[in-house]
Amino acid sequence: MTIKLYELAAAEDDRLFSPYCWRVKMALAHKGLAFESLPWRFTEKAAIAFSGSGTVPVIVDGDRTVADSWVIAQYLDEAYPDRPRLFEGNEARTLAYFFKHWCEGNVHPPCMRAIVLDLYNALHEKDKAYFRASREKRFGRTLEEHAADRSGAIAALRAALAPLRPVLAEQPFVSARAPGFADYILFGTFQWTRAVSPVKLLEPEDPVYAWRERMLDLHGGLGRKAKGYPV
Amino acid sequence: MTIKLYELAAAEDDRLFSPYCWRVKMALAHKGLAFESLPWRFTEKAAIAFSGSGTVPVIVDGDRTVADSWVIAQYLDEAYPDRPRLFEGNEARTLAYFFKHWCEGNVHPPCMRAIVLDLYNALHEKDKAYFRASREKRFGRTLEEHAADRSGAIAALRAALAPLRPVLAEQPFVSARAPGFADYILFGTFQWTRAVSPVKLLEPEDPVYAWRERMLDLHGGLGRKAKGYPV
Question: How large is the ipTM?
Fold first, then answer.
């Protein structure tokens, strides 16, 4: 049965920019599970109220509804143990959980500063007031102030990625020889930025750039074919 | 046969403060391998020249000599596959390699700023000129300037540890239900600081503090019994 995936969309239904939804979409493809993408906007809380969650991703798999990208990844490995695993085992899962928090705490903030106005401009009209109010509260300043130093944000992002470069110099993926959920976590970040912003975040000679190229080609080019800007 | 471990010592032979040597010492204990610690100072390059390395840890296991804490960890799992593993598998090893670079790039620098003068004062007299010259070159300023803002360094350390707290809120160890090499990587950092400095780096209510307590008790209290300051 086809899994339904509620995904955050911008003005266009097929400009899908949530890093968390991208994690899940790549995970579904990794496991070879068919899915149908249902575009959703920040302000459509009623449409996913059945899930108990106010945010996406939400998946509906037959009679099971699961929200939150991390919880969904655990669910997929448990519900489909005979398909390719997202985690090698308990230790890898726990280290990937650290990687998730590193990514969200150290990588997302400079990315947000680099793209926030492009993101705002790409949003569906009905989401703009919500996004501005919620993010200005979170940042403690206006979106324009938050976006004021784009070159500083890009430099901060490149510095934050430092621990990853020795890993990708030795292995093609964060999860070693084949991609795993840790790869999808960070790849989601770059699909988020790429969906809404033309900004060049990485230098082509960066090992992270080459890794992102490999990720864009996975699963039939699922990432590369998605609506967004060239990286 | 007892493995020989060349370990960095301060003025006293039993004040062992290298984070990298601590990783190896904990790894040897984890695998239940008997070892003999040989104190070594920064300026005793000739004593380990046989290894091809200018720094410790160096282990001698029968006719095998291995240097570098990361390389030694791989060696131990390969040479002693039937003893408790330091890595669950390839994916966990690669994520632990990321964790190592995160630790050295994000955790060590604020620790160094917090302890560097205590460390300098604890050194063997014959190492002091070497340490001052090499570190002042690395830092681009005097040790005293590098140490000037201890409370800022402690605040930066606590902020850097943020991605770890959600992990330790759910699992007792970085490597999940039992300690693995990733735990020994970060524990080495705290054994380094504790060996030479009385500074209180963590608040008792920090989940990282509780984790460090568990680590101090492992393997018969190997870490806690070592010469150092109360944490």
Answer: 0.97
